[in-house]
Amino acid sequence: MRGLSALILVIAFASPGIAGPAASGGDAGLLVWFFIGFVALFIVSQLIPGIILTIGVFRGLFTRNDAGKDATQPKDHVM
Fold this sequence. Notes:
Oligomer: single chain
Distance between the termini: 115 Å
Structural class: mainly alpha
């Protein structure tokens, strides 16, 4: 019984010490913020051409092309 009481006492006093560093760890250094900014810049620089390409595809799908109609029509050739 004495051993069980000692174990409970050790666990009770050790738990704040184990949880302590995780509770105060939220301070990211300057190098971490530069890295996050670089990754964000890379992602944004890849999104801009993708958005331009998507706009071009939708513009090509939903615009009417009258010049293409003449090319598909059979033509009468007189020799």
